[in-house]
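Sample 1 of the test manifest.
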Amino acid sequence: MCGGVVVTLKSHIRQVVMARPSAHEVTQLLQAWGNGDERALEKLTPLVYAELHQLAQRYMAGEASGHILQTTALVHEVYLRLVDFRDISWQNRAYFFGVCARLMRQILVDFARSRRRLKRGGESPQVSLDEALVVAQEAPTNLLALDEALNALAALEPRKSRVVELRYFGGLSVEETAEVLRVSEETVLRDWRLAKSWLLREMSEGHRDEA
Amino acid sequence: MKLERWRQVECLYHAALEREESERGAFLEAACSGDPALRDEVGSLLTYDRRAEHFMEVAALQSAAKILAQEQAQSRRSAEANSPLIGKTISHYRILENLGRGGMGVVYKAEDIRLGRKVALKFLPTGLAGDPTTMLRFQREAQAASALNHPHICTVYEIDEVEGQAFLAMELMEGCTLKDLITGQPLPERRLLDLGMEIADALEAAHAQGIVHRDIKPANIFVTKRGEAKLLDFGLAKLQGSGCGVQRPGNDRSVEGSEAGEGVTPHDTPSLSIEADEISVAGAAMGTAAYMSPEQARGEKVDARTDLFSFGAVLYEMATGRQAFSGETSGEIREAILTRQPTSPQRLNPAINRRLQAIIEKALQKDRDVRYQRASEVRADLERLVPRQRGRLRGTPLQKRWLAAGAASALVALLATLIGLNVAGLRDRLAPHVGWHSTTSAQALRIQSIAVLPLENLSRDPEQEYFADGLTDDLITDLGKVANLRVISRTSVMRYKGGAKKLLPQIARELDVDAVVEGTVQRSGDRVRITAQLLEARTDRNLWAETYVRDFGEIIRLEEEAALAIAHEISGHLTAAEEARLGSQRAVNPRAYDDYLHGRHLWAERTAEAAVGARAYFEQALREDPGFALAYSGLADYYGVSWLVKWNQPLAETYARKAVALEPDLAEAHASLGVTCSYQRKFAEAEKELKRAIELNPNYAMAHHWYSLELLTLGRLTEALAENDRARQLDPFSLPINFLRGSILLSMHEYDRAAEQLETAAAINPQSSLPHVDLARIYWIEGKVPDALAEERKMAAPAHLPALLRNQEEIAAAYAKSGLPGAQREAARLLDRGYEASMREQDSGAPAKGAYSASYVAIKYGLLKDRERTLHWLNQACHESTVDLTDLKSAPELDFLRSDPRFQDLLRRMNFPP
């Protein structure tokens, strides 16, 4: 009866000894990408995907039993695992937050794009889970439409677009966002509120054709 | 859009948001006059403001993860649908058919080949079986619950893992889950009670073994075809809680499938197993959303009481057909669980028994200390609702007519429950606790004394303070009507109001009580919400808690309810007389009652200004309800007792008699009448009335106090001291009661004890001059001149009559030179003058302190052994309707006069019995 358990244990040990880029390496990759090195993205993407699967796994486990996942702090955790912020000087912290948020945006929008291809490829779209997950259902934001709307917003006023990028994709708090952008928290909150309305309108109206 | 234009839009957008929604249109119209395009642009953004409230609430990474999870779930489900498992043999189980998805995975009917019996096999989600220690813990727990062999816990035969797939083999049952049974409709009450009691039994058995389910919900409660409840999945939630963060590559088909082409192969997945525990602690508070307890929602440690909350949510759903907590998102549900009170069950299902509602509300208390503490308590309460052959109580409506005010009725209901707990059913009810705390004996838990701490006013409005205090008062008064239960009086509990909170056991020690009631009152408009809990004083342990929400004017329903509650709780335990007393009160109109509470609140402050305000409120109450006995009793006390205003004993007597006539069984009325009779030296009637008051409400401290005063006046010192003891037990921190004790001891010539007691009284209220008056007397008698002088100064310092202050000092100076005949005369002259000044003050209607009454002056002359002057002033006192002749018969200063026939004649004329 415990045989399976031993197997499980072994697979864990195997996992533990497996190599992954060190936090220092990730930091360097981020810096490189921030400086325009697109190859760095190829190495960073799998790391983010691994996190994504990790999260999905937790959703699955929650879904199976009707349990839900507490949503706060997850993105921060991911960052903490990806980047060792202790490596980064205080002056650079804001910069790295910004790079991370941008990286997230790019990877996640690409992810959404690939899903859409997958759907069009013939697999039946699974929009909502069964009743067990109903309680946990925040309708997933349409990332592709948001990305486009965000570009439009950036054309109008770059700062508001950045606020959204940092908060939504980067998972930064109001305080951190204010730090990165060197504005007051009050400004971040006002930008965030207007940007949300603006983006939602943009997305709703942009999607009329498809609907 | 030009940047300038955009700035304009932005500005107007935020400016509009600062205004009420209804005003925004007009605001924009005005701000954008002549520029309709601008108005439309801002207006259109504003329409999105509300819709955008939850937009992007969840971080992008999570949205993406959810999409991924949905895909994986989908592919898994399609894999399950054409399950290759049917007909296969796994371990020693041959799989027969798919029974559906259970609470936590797919369930198959299977045959145990070795034992030849049919079982249910439940396959657990792959992600769960990951961590070996967690798995072991789960096995232990599931099997421990199984080992209870409880009729209402589903038996787990075995837990195993084959090829990385964990499964449980368990008892095969026919029926459906409670979730399928409810389907949006309330269950019949009897069904609910039966299932509820069975679930409670199962939980009690598990909790007794230290096993917490953690995931009680309708989907985890199976109802067999025979109608029995069976709890499923013990231990599973714990597995869920700590092991889900662990990823196991290599055995999750769906993960592999969906990530092909994404450049991530399973062995690329970084290991996070070391951090697994951290992840689940920091990031994921687990628990079935809608049934989760507040502590689970906060990610705190859970205990047995967590199950009781979830159980409460299940009861709620059984009773109403609706979930207690719901929301569009998990966040909203969490929010609801943490902060919101669910809709009252009775509003969703009017047929529901109020007492069942109370049980549900108690189980759903957010603070677990206030909740039910044990499943057996829920069971006992449910059981009480099961109809029995109790025709007498259920069938016949109570004869009594209840004309109760809303708040008063709610209080009566509350009180009834308390009484049921304290006096009557207490031992039965607490019996289970005894087993729980093995060191506590049943004897020790019998509650013979209780303190009602000031109910906390939760209304924002400080004006409502009096209302909370008034209800506290009433609770004290009403509880006081139960014989053999000592209830601490108002003045002694009010010191625990607000401010720095003392620990309960300390309060209990100070008041010397077995139990404490504390609670809150919130009144908004006509709604009154009262929460109360009964705590075992020594251990701070919650014995009972209840919430009442009522309309202030909701009368008829409350009558019935209160009557029923009382009848139910006290059946067979209260004497008929007690029952009658509880039932006969409160023939009041709510507004009059409100005024009365205001008045008593002010009266209790014992300042001159407040006393005058109190009188106004009592009078107002009588305008509302001219037949309101309590208000008359309040007025009687104002005129007859308060030493802060000018006495008017005849008026006090008139009001007291009126109160007695209106409500012959009102203890307050008889006490008010008794005390004014006593002050008027109608000793026989005073004694009769005071004894009657005590009989009607043995816990009315003032009745004991005034009776003690009467006994002191009559010179029955031993009895006076005993009566004072009773008053003091009920109201240990009352200034008048403590002061009177000092006076009695002084009359008993026990100067040391008297001085000590008076110091205690002085400490209760340093502003009061009373204790210092008697302390000075003691020191003068003992010849301790400096001490006496010090007391005289203390006595004078806080006095309300600054004009007399100097006189007082002069007298003191005169006494300091005592022994010289001339000085004594000088002192006497000053005393006379002081008296006259005092009388003038009183005549002018200003608040007076009785220190310069004729009898006070007489006592001073007595101290000087000036026989003639003493007798002169005593004669004067005799005509005065002052109240401080209380120790004429025993004052040590007058000892030298006692054999004087003139003194004896005086006593006769003053109605003193020989």
